[in-house]
Design brief:
The complex is a heterotetramer. Chain B is α+β, with helices and mostly antiparallel strands. Chain B is built from eleven helices and twelve strands. The longest helix of chain B is centred in the last third of the chain and has 20 residues. The chains are: A alpha/beta, B alpha+beta, C alpha/beta, D alpha/beta.
């Protein structure tokens, strides 16, 4: 099932951001007025290791066109080791999604620190553009 | 009675699919299922039973019953009255045909299930007589004649090079006249071929069991230690119930989306741990033992008490598919029949 | 074959007589030639029903989860079954001292479907193993075919035919089969090659057939939770409707839950009534875990932690870490 | 059904400019469970909060959604607000429609749509919020200060004076840090040693301060009020009890190495005290360079030691202690100059760094305070000072301004002409930055009274010319090419974070910025706290600072510490993991991933069918749990959940977003 690029299609991006780094990075992007596409919706979690793959699949089922998990850089985890586990978990999940035929751009994982407001803005602009050119998620979406 | 050369069947299917949705056993990755006919699909008329039984046409595994929207007032959109497009199923085995009558008793007797009724009435069933039963076939025990299918609109019989088509209902007649150009008038010789095929098939049974008096025998067995012994092997999957042409338990689920939502009906399986689980968490069938007992008592005791007929057609799907070889055939053999009665 | 069955019967009856165990789980023969289901024997007299034949494939270990009523349970374990034992031990779902393991080295079980295909139009009455041959009784009499050509796929790629944990061996070990990494992961590699959309088309064709019977989960030794997440109503993690979205959700999350814990017994794929090649999905994850975080064979050592339960600071990642 | 109130904030025009408040309110009214919607220009104001409290009473609200700025800004403010109205504080949810909406989206329609979506998401979560209750935890009334420089010294003294025990850990054999290396200090030119040494002595003599020198932080566990820290006492090879600090050993020691304190300008011995006023004034053996440890011969120091204090057998010791609070004052490094070959540093002895120049100025330095050319020991007449070496240099240095260079260079220019009458200072600068009390005046004096020549222009090359050095530059103002002949070049080297800062940050689980300076909790409002409760920052480890700022921050950190240690007890974060025993399989995969050892196993009795069975389940110690949630994903059956971020809540948020 190849996805036709739709004109004027605005993707919905769900971003799971850890409270200590990436959510702070998003706030910093805000205080620095670094604009990025409004397609992004942030879910605040304490740590990237709180993000259950079920949340990600659920987002796709309910109609998200792209999902991104953002956490502290490895070694900077507020909880010592959370993102080390995330790294392994999401490596597995990402490869699996691609293996099942989901375009790799639709699910991304990035490390964004609290001081990287600019990076947050550019990463969010990036995934929005990636997914926009892929077109809507029709593969995992519930048909309702 | 008409007939058509096997080579020309595709013409028939093409014609049928023009006027209606035509479903036919198709092989995907070695599994036969009723799929909608399209040019070039791998039609499989040899495999005895499709993986998923034809009940899905009248009683889909998942169907939306209604849509609702909570605004200033509640808006409800009923789906039942939308069901039922003109459908033809080709190649239904006699056991599956007789399963339809059993399902009708559940869904067409009062209270009538509207969606089921519409689908059932808008569907024409073309049965295909069996040539050679599998060792797991025991339809004979339930008075199914594997060469005949009285419940079907048309009976198709494989006579070797040709398929003989015999209309058994007005719907069937109609369809045959529609196909006029493509069919040849069958001769008395063909009728004999059909009879021979049916007799040959009948003689092919390897598994012969009797359910005579089984219902009565089970009357006293609700608390029997037999179930204790039997259930242990069950791994509580839903295979037997989902591949069973007569299993008809369903669950109703909500799919809420903010102020909107859908109500869905989907197949349930008495083998599942959450079967008949109540909102409060209580379950009258707390362990697998009760659930396994439920399955066999329902088919061989409760249903027959209600409808005077066993809720099994001996298609053998559960015998072939059960991951741990726990099936109704085993129960019938082990409990065995008694004197008289059903 | 027969002497093997007799060895099992003796072990079982002795153990039950000596009251070493109060239950023995093995296999027995049922109506049809291809049916060798699991058998529960709780008194010595019944030990006679135990058999060892080309179809004693069912994994008995999951039944150990509900044997609280038995002080000690004896169980016959093939190579794959024994890794299932380690699976339960690592998952803390089984106390080692409550089971007695009778190792039954196994050179593979036979795929009835493959055999039927080999005898079109004929009715197979009986199948027995004779050395590396199968003697197949059909209407026309007995025929002999090489066993290894008719083994289940999962057995053809089995790397641990001998039990990895046991209290006593029922008979001498078999020669381990050499399985190359290529052949082990060939189906995965092939799928990895094709275009992402084609790959989705492939999988959706497979999962279109899924009836959500949960047999793959219920047979899986790594799926041993008291209450599975998919059976919960609040929150409802998985819709009960059999939509493609929910089916993929179920299959992917289950695969994730057994990631690093699956030991390739292949029961999911073998018993799938819809014939979905589920093992490929699990093997894909094993392939990735091995590649990223080092070779690991689940079900060998109950003491260690699965790859997703540990980390190294310098771990690589399968995504952009810049 | 919950009774949810939604309060949308204008934040003046910050939100109202991009979000159509009326439209958002209309949308909020239709959301499930919402029974009251209101708006306010500044919801965080007294009036705004009063409005919320009033509405809770009037409309019997049981959940509150405030759509305003980031929860990191005002979550606590509004939690207190709803608590004051009798609701559990955790019934509050915040929709971040400022930082994550109005401030980043220009288009009003798109901004409004997103704001509505964010509000819907917060409402969905709020309707599943449950009451959470913090538990009381004891506090270890003892502080740890990491670093014995002026920052650490000041912080330690202030905390100790407040009556609390303080341990100061210093990795060098003596406290004193960078300030001890300096000669005079701007803008007052009072001598660094004269003001630092007394403080060092105070620290060493303070009954509540315990100096742990020649030691490093090994491991940090626990949490605010209850840290457990493992400290490595490096083997000093000298028995501190016995040693009298007479110095005979140092005098006789045969092996010489470059002195760190004198930045390589002179040699020190293998057994040494870093500088004369060292505290403690007792030597340590630098084993890497000690003849005995290298070749197994020598033992001279042992022979000469009258107190028999030399102990070659000493080993590193790991000691653990508990602390309620930690002050990080680990200081800075000077910038490495390897990328600046054009300045001939290391190639020509008369090209030196500013810190080396400080040592030349210093009476206790290698030249006894005389400014002499390292090459020939002669007095320089003309000295060039090059500023911003490694600073404000995106290409190969630090992008930031090192902040102190302009002022110390002015100081150097002044001291040069004070010490060498008639000597001339030429200062090459990009800009001269002198914010700070009396700083501009000080800089003015450098060229007005002391005749320093300031040349705006960056130096392209420094190269020898016979006895002397030529500094090539362009006068940015006139555009003229300059080739200046000087006797000496002083490089105003930039300020870096400590090379091991990252490592220390990871041990403390605090974060650093791109340049490895430790992050403060908020750049304006929480400048001395870190994101990790109970850990505070002082001095240049947080960013380049001069002495006054450092001391001010150190005292501020000390004040924060005393505030913390003053508390009777601490309230634990109630957002912790909890186990649903019914669902728990007891496979303990949660325990495996818990970084705090907060999960243990326990056995429970349970009915199965007819009989009672015993089975293992997980058990969470809510005092140890920090609420990361790693366990909730490791748990396959979803039996372990995180209060405040439950599976139900997050799934509801996802569903709401995707509507």
């Amino acid at each position: 099932m190849s996805v036709v690029k739709q004109e004027g299609f605005e993707p919905l991006i769900v971003a799971f951001c850890c409270n200590w780094c990436s959510y702070a990075g998003a706030d910093l992007a805000g205080t620095s007025r670094m604009s990025y596409p409004s397609n992004v919706r942030i879910v605040r979690v304490p740590c990237s290791s709180r993000v259950n793959p079920s949340f990600i699949i659920r987002a796709f089922q309910r109609g998200a066109d792209g999902v991104i998990v953002a956490g502290c850089h490895p070694g900077d985890c507020h909880y010592h080791s959370g993102n080390f586990f995330s790294r392994r978990r999401f490596t597995v999940l990402k490869q699996m999604l691609e293996f099942m035929g989901i375009e790799p751009e639709r699910f991304q994982v990035r490390w964004i620190s609290g001081s990287e407001g600019a990076k947050f803005a550019s990463v969010m602009a990036g995934i929005t553009q990636d997914v926009k050119s892929l077109g809507p998620n029709r593969k995992l979406r519930d048909v309702r | 009675m008409k007939k058509v050369a096997k080579a020309n069947l595709v013409e028939v299917w093409r014609k049928l699919s023009a006027g209606a949705k035509l479903y036919i056993p198709v092989d995907t990755d070695g599994v036969a299922n009723f799929l909608s006919w399209q040019e070039g699909v791998a039609v499989d008329l040899e495999t005895l039973n499709t993986f998923v039984p034809p009940k899905k046409f009248f009683y889909p595994q998942t169907e939306t019953i209604l849509r609702y929207e909570i605004g200033d007032e509640l808006k409800i959109e009923d789906f039942a009255c939308q069901a039922g497009e003109n459908t033809i199923i080709f190649g239904v085995r006699p056991c599956d045909v007789s399963s339809m009558a059993l399902m009708d008793r559940v869904y067409l007797e009062d209270p009538v299930d509207e969606a089921y009724r519409r689908r059932r009435e808008s569907t024409t069933v073309i049965a295909l007589g069996c040539k050679d039963p599998d060792e797991t076939c025991f339809c004979q025990a339930f008075d199914v004649d594997l060469g005949k299918a009285p419940g079907a609109d048309i009976l198709a019989t494989d006579t070797g090079e040709e398929i003989v088509l015999n209309a058994q209902s007005a719907k069937g007649e109609e369809l045959l006249t529609l196909l006029d150009g493509l069919l040849i008038e069958a001769t008395s010789g063909d009728e004999n071929k059909v009879r021979d095929a049916q007799d040959k098939a009948k003689s092919g049974y390897e598994t012969v069991v009797s359910v005579q008096g089984l219902m009565e025998k089970l009357d006293g067995m609700f608390e029997d230690p037999y179930w204790e012994k039997l259930y242990k092997r069950c791994i509580a999957c839903g295979t037997c119930t989902f591949v069973c042409p007569t299993c008809h338990c369903f669950d109703v689920q909500e799919y809420p989306t903010g102020n909107r939502g859908e109500r869905i009906r989907c197949w349930d399986a008495c083998m599942f741990s959450d079967f008949t689980q109540m909102a409060g968490g209580h379950n009258p069938r707390p362990t697998q033992k009760e659930r396994v007992r439920q399955r066999f008592m329902h088919k061989l005791n409760y249903y027959p008490h209600q409808h005077g007929e066993y809720a099994c057609v001996g298609c053998g799907r559960c015998v072939r598919k059960c991951p741990v070889n726990l099936d109704i055939l085993e129960v019938i053999k082990e409990i065995g029949g008694g004197a008289g009665g059903l | 074959m027969r002497e093997y069955s007799e060895k099992m019967q003796k072990i079982a009856s002795d153990a039950l007589e000596k009251k070493e165990v109060s239950l023995v789980i093995g296999w027995r023969k049922k109506d049809f030639w291809w049916q060798s289901p699991v058998a529960f024997v709780d008194d010595a007299a019944q030990a006679r029903q135990l058999v060892w034949d080309p179809f004693t494939v069912n994994n008995p270990i999951k039944y150990l989860l509900d044997q609280d009523c038995h002080e000690k349970t004896g169980v016959f374990v093939k190579g794959c079954d024994s890794r299932g034992i380690n699976r339960l031990l690592q998952d803390r779902r089984l106390e080692r001292d409550r089971v007695v393991l009778y190792g039954v080295p196994c050179d593979g079980k036979v795929d009835a479907a493959k055999l039927k295909k080999a005898f079109p139009g004929q009715k197979i009455k009986q199948v027995a193993a004779a050395g590396d041959q199968l003697s197949v009784t059909v209407d026309g009499g007995d025929e002999s075919v090489p066993a290894k050509e008719y083994l289940l796929d999962k057995c053809q790629s089995c790397r641990y035919p001998n039990p990895v944990v046991y209290d006593r061996l029922a008979w001498e070990e078999v020669a381990p089969r050499q399985v190359s990494e290529e052949s082990r992961f060939s189906r995965v590699a092939d799928l990895e090659q094709i275009d992402v959309d084609e790959r989705f088309a492939y999988w959706s064709r497979q999962f279109e057939r899924c009836i959500r019977c949960f047999a793959c989960r219920n047979v899986c030794p790594a799926c041993n939770c008291v209450t599975c997440i998919f059976d919960q109503a609040e929150p409802r993690w998985l819709g009960k409707a059999s939509d493609m979205g929910d089916t993929l959700n179920y299959q992917m999350i289950r695969a994730f839950h057994v990631a690093g814990r699956c030991f390739e017994c292949g029961e999911c794929e073998r018993i799938c009534p819809a014939g979905i090649p589920l093992l490929d999905l699990h093997r894909k994850i094993i392939k990735d875990l091995n590649g990223y975080y080092g070779e690991y064979d689940a079900g060998l050592n109950p003491e260690d932690n699965p790859p997703l339960g540990i980390y190294r600071g310098e771990d690589p990642a399968g995504f952009d870490e810049s | 059904m919950k009774r949810i109130g939604v309060f949308i904030c204008w934040c003046g025009s910050n939100i109202a400019a991009t979000v159509d408040i009326e439209k958002a309110m209309a949308a909020a009214r239709t959301m499930p469970g919402v029974v009251h919607v209101d708006q306010n220009k500044y919801t965080c104001s007294g009036i705004g909060q009063a409005m919320i409290r009033g509405a809770i009473k009037e409309h019997k609200l049981d959940r509150v959604v405030v759509s305003a700025c980031s929860p990191r800004m005002h979550e606590n403010t509004f939690r207190k607000t709803v608590e004051a109205a009798g609701l559990n504080p955790y019934y509050l949810e915040i929709a971040n429609i400022r930082e994550q909406c109005s401030w980043v989206h220009k288009d009003k329609e798109a901004g409004t749509d997103k704001a509505i979506s964010l509000i819907r998401t917060a409402v969905a979560k709020a309707s599943r919020n449950e009451a959470l209750f913090a538990t009381e935890m004891p506090i270890e009334r003892r502080a740890l200060v990491i670093g014995g420089g002026i920052a650490g010294i000041q912080a330690a003294l202030d905390i100790a004076d407040a009556g609390y025990e303080v341990d100061v850990v210093e990795k060098e054999p003596s406290i004193g840090g960078r300030m001890a290396q300096l000669d005079k200090t701007f803008p007052t030119l009072d001598c660094s040693a004269c003001i630092l040494t007394p403080k060092m002595v105070d620290v060493s003599q303070h009954e509540k301060i315990n100096l742990i020198t020649y030691s490093e932080i090994e491991k940090v566990e626990g949490y605010v009020g209850n840290f457990t820290v493992t400290i490595r006492n490096k083997a000093r090879s000298v028995d501190m009890e016995k040693c009298t600090g007479c110095g005979d050993c140092t005098a006789k020691c045969p092996s010489k190495v470059e002195s760190e304190f004198d930045v390589g300008l002179v040699k020190r011995k293998a057994i040494y005290t870093p500088f004369p006023q060292a505290v403690p004034n007792k030597p340590a053996i630098d084993r890497a360079n000690c003849r005995w440890f290298k070749s197994g011969k020598c033992k001279v120091c042992q022979k000469v030691c009258p107190a028999d204090a030399i102990d070659y057998e000493q080993e590193d010791r790991l000691v653990t202690a508990r602390y309620g609070a930690i002050v990080v004052a680990s200081g800075f490094d000077t910038h490495k100059l390897d990328k600046y070959g054009e300045y001939a540093y290391g190639k020509h002895p008369d090209v030196i760094t500013s810190l080396e120049f400080e040592r030349l100025l210093n009476a206790s330095g290698p030249t006894g305070g005389k400014i002499l050319r390292p090459s020939n020991g002669q007095t320089p007449k003309n000295v060039a000072f090059i500023q911003c070496v490694g600073s404000r240099d995106k290409a190969k240095g630090n992008p930031y301004c090192a902040k102190v260079c302009c002022m110390y260079t002015a100081k150097h220019a002044i001291l040069l002409s004070e010490k060498i009458p008639g000597a001339k200072a030429f200062v090459f600068y990009i800009d001269v930055r002198t914010p700070g009390k009396d700083y501009e005046e000080f800089y003015n004096r450098a060229y007005e009274e002391y005749g320093a020549t300031y040349i705006k222009g960056s130096v392209s090359k420094v190269f020898p010319d016979g006895e002397q050095l030529i500094v090539r530059s362009v006068d940015a103002l006139s555009g003229a090419l300059i080739e200046l002949v000087v006797d000496m070049v002083v490089l105003a080297t930039s300020v870096d974070a400590r090379s091991d800062a990252k490592e220390l940050a990871q041990k403390l689980s605090i974060t650093t910025n791109a340049h490895n300076f430790f992050n403060e909790a908020h750049p304006k409002l929480r400048p001395v706290e870190t994101h990790t409760a109970g850990i505070f920052l002082a001095g240049a480890c947080q960013g380049p600072k001069d002495i006054p700022e450092t001391v001010a921050q150190a005292s501020a950190a000390a004040a924060k510490v005393t505030v913390l240690l003053n508390k009777k007890s601490l309230l634990s974060n109630p957002s912790v993991a909890e186990v649903n025993l019914k669902l728990c399989s007891g496979d303990m995969s949660c325990m495996v991933v818990c970084p705090y050892g907060a999960i243990t196993e326990k056995m429970i009795e349970e009915r199965r069918g007819r009989d009672m069975i015993k089975r293992r389940v997980a058990d969470v110690n809510s005092a140890l749990c920090q609420g990361c949630g790693a366990c909730t994903v490791a748990c396959r059956p979803g039996a372990i959940n995180l209060k405040g971020f439950t599976n139900e809540q997050i799934l509801a948020e996802v569903d709401a977003i995707c509507l």
